[in-house]
Each structure stands twice: as structure tokens, then as C-alpha cells.
Amino acid sequence: MATKTAKSFGYNSILPDLEQKNRVFILTGSKSPIRMMIPVKHTGRKPLTYFDGKLNRALRYATNQITPFVDEQDGVVTLEPITFENGTLIVPDWNVNLQKFLLIHPLYGKKFIELDKEKNASVEVESLYSELDAQIAAKNLDINDLEAIARVVMKGNVSTLTSSELRRDMILWAKKNPGEFMNLVDDENLKLRNLAVRAVEMGVLHIKGDNRTVTWADDKNNKIMVTPFGENVYGALAMFFKTDEGLDVLQNITNKL
User: Fold this and answer.
1) What is the DSSP letter of 220?
2) Could you say which DSSP state residue 8 is in?
């Protein structure tokens, strides 16, 4: 005869293996009131429910119950307010029921979160590694590639900077914007875009007043291409260099630079 498996009940049906330890919960946002109470029971005017996969079940925090679900609570319940003082609520390890109630509370992640030092430190380490990787890439990147990135992200005429000034500024920029910097390092069109800018600055190519038509600087009637409407002329040139016709133009520019 088959035995029946006991039905999962109360807090253990939601968070059965929660580690027993002191936990600190903090209010989110830049400003925290001196004292803030959060709802502890479901009412018609202020619903407080938890979706268990099938139903939205009414919640109620009672200190004399081992379940947060109203439909599972028996007898007289003892309610207790949940209050954040100066934006913080410290829950000792012995009060596991309150910890679990806070973790399933509808306001968790919206109005308050758990302060997890280990998790926060892990995130901080990942951020530091990201910054470090970007700075190392900026330190070791070929100066021409670094110049290409600088033209995209820096204001002013990059050509006036010395190699040392350019590398210094880009190492600092990479530290502040590691993700964006690494994306630009992997951008296959970046070198071609930089070459187009240099060709114009060095007087090999000429961009007419419409900011769309590109010609040879020494023969302004010899049109190379017309930038599609709404596109950046240098970005369009970079794409043009990948075409059969553009490869011949690219080789000609390279020979003249």
C-alpha cells in the first residue's frame, strides 16, 4: 500500500532551506523616513497576497503561527507591527518566521531589500575586475585603435593630443565606462570609421556641404559615395569600405596616408 506524502505547509512550503542567521533589511531609495511600518495582513482595501503557483493567497504575519497564509492559521492570532527604524530592520537568527515573511512580502525588492554583504562584495569585485580589464586593454591597445575609440567618446580634436595624453585620457575613461569601452574595442567598424576621419583631416577625402556627399579632396567632382539619408557620414564610409568598390577606395586612401 502506497504511503501518502505529507502536504507541504506554512513557511516551509515556500522557503524550506533558508539559512539560519541574523539578517538586515533596508529600505530602498535615496531617502529613508525615521520610522516606516509595512503592512502585515491582507485586507479588502489593502491586499497583501502571495501567488503560490495556483492561487493568490492572503498573507498575515502572526507571532504565534508557523504559517503566513491566513487559510492555514488556526485560533487566535497575535499580530505584531513590522517597523523599519532609520531605514533599517535587523531580524535575529531565532526569528526565522519574520525573516521568511519579509522575503515573500509583496514590497520586497520594491520598498525594501535584504542587505547581503557577501553578495554585495561579490558584485563589487566583479565591477572592479571589469574596470581593471578595461584599463589594461586601454594600456595595451595599439595607439591607432585607441585613437579610433577616442574619436567616438571624447569631445574636441583628438589629433591635437600626444600619444601619452591620448592613452592617459582613455585609461581614465575606460575605468569610468568599462562596459562601453570593451564594446568599442570589439567593434569591427571602428578602425574603418577612424580611417575615414583621418582621411578627411589629412586632406585625402572631402565631404561636401550637404554632409552626405564624399569626394576625393584633389578632385571634388569625382564622387565616391553619397551617405544614405539620416546616417552618419563616417559610419556610412566605414560600411562602404567593406564593399567591392569600397575596397579599391580603401586601398587608395591607405597609400596616400
Assistant:
1) E
2) P
Question: Rounded to whole angstroms, how far apart are CA atoms 12 and 26?
Answer: 24
Q: How confident is the model at residue 120 (pLDDT cuts 50, 70, 90)?
A: low
User: To 10 degrees, the CA torsion angle through 12, 17, 20, 24?
Assistant: -80
Rounded (5°) CA angle 107-108-113: 130
Query: In angstroms, rounded to a whole number, what is the distance separating the alpha carbons of residues 257 and 252?
Result: 9
How far, in Å, CA of 236 to CA of 226, rounded? 9
DSSP 161: S
Distance between CA atoms of residues 4 and 159, nearest Å:
79
Beta carbons within 10 angstroms of residue 121's beta carbon: 10
Amino acid at 215: T
Question: Can you give the pTM of this predicted structure?
Answer: 0.48
H helix or E strand, kind and range, residue 224: strand 219-226
Which residue's entry shows cell 577625402?
Answer: 205
**pLDDT at residue 61 in the model:** 96
The torsion angles phi and psi of 230, rounded to 5 degrees, stand at 90, -5
